[in-house]
Amino acid sequence: MSDRIALIEAGGTKFIVGVGDASRQIHARTRIDTTRPEETIPAAIDWLRAQGGDYAAVGIASFGPLDLDRASPKWGHITRTTKPHWSDADIAGPFARAFGCPVAIDTDVNGAALAEWEWGAGQGTNSTLYLTVGTGVGGGAVVGGRLIHGLSHPEMGHIRMPRHPDDRGFAGHCSFHGDCLEGLAAGPSIIARWGASLSDLPADHIGHDIIAWHLAQAVQTFQAILDPARIILGGGVMGTPGLLDRVRIRASEAGAGYFAGDPSRVITSPALGSDVGLLGALALALRAAG
User: Fold this and answer.
1) Are the C-beta atoms of 50 and 66 separated by less than 8 Å?
2) Are 266 and 230 a contacting pair, CB within 8 Å?
3) What is the pTM of this model?
């Protein structure tokens, strides 16, 4: 039996498709633009077949929302998404039919949370929360070695938010909820306010404090609900110089000494770098393959 794992990091802009194994080696990878399901998914399958086509499992870490109820006829489908053409798209089914092996699918952030807990910044903890802040905001959490699921998966980017005193005139940029966390802190919301990404704004621009303040309020909310040992903040917006330290300071102020743990240790950056998406798919697949 093959020990190779097919890996898919399914993003709204691109699919990164790879071949890995249980030793965490990624032997090959490619990029496929995310156009339409009937174009992108067959292209990913064709590339995987060209690598040999014999896999022990397939791991898919995908943008969502996703139907993750194994009893549902729409398991493995994207549900209602703002990505054109992808609502109700079957992501898992085509790979299962193509390769006849176990297929694991979860959100990209759940995959990242699991990988960081297994091998990265959350390693050795009982609980890790991963929050990505980029084009959107999403989060996943591992508690006691298990990813958190409910009827579906967490939508941490859509929690309701208090408003920074100097940001109350902005309506928010989420097409579903307006001024939820994603609507206030994601990259498009920053550009909608100030006409530039956070990293391109001057160092003394108030936008840096506003975004750090909103993220700190989210951190306080997640601490109150889960009290995770690690809160890992990733994504493109978090690449802004100094933002992580600002969030730590603001989170410490917001927590007022109530929560356990030193924010400088609890709140941290990812450790797995640009491979976190494929490693998230690998972590999911390894569990599916037993």
Assistant:
1) no
2) yes
3) 0.93
Q: What is the DSSP string of 242-260?
A: THHHHHHHHHHHHHTT-SS
Instruction: Give the domain range for residue 125.
Output: 121-271
Dihedral pair phi/psi, residue 285, rounded to 5°: -65, -40
Write a three-state SS string for 171-185.
CCCECCCECEHHHHH
113 domain-assigned: no
Tens digits of per-residue pLDDT, 124-157? 999 999 999 998 999 999 999 999 998 888 899 9
CB of 53 closer than 8 Å to CB of 99: yes
Q: What is the pLDDT of residues 10-24, one digit of tens each?
A: 998 899 999 999 999
How far is residue 182's CA from residue 100's CA, in Å, rounded to a whole number? 37
> Are residue 16 and residue 92 in the same domain, yes or no?
yes
Q: Which two tokens stand for residue 7?
A: 């890996």
Q: Alpha-carbon Rg of the chain, whole angstroms?
A: 19
- What CATH number should be reported for the domain holding residue 170? 3.30.420.40
Q: Supply the pLDDT for residue 262.
A: 84
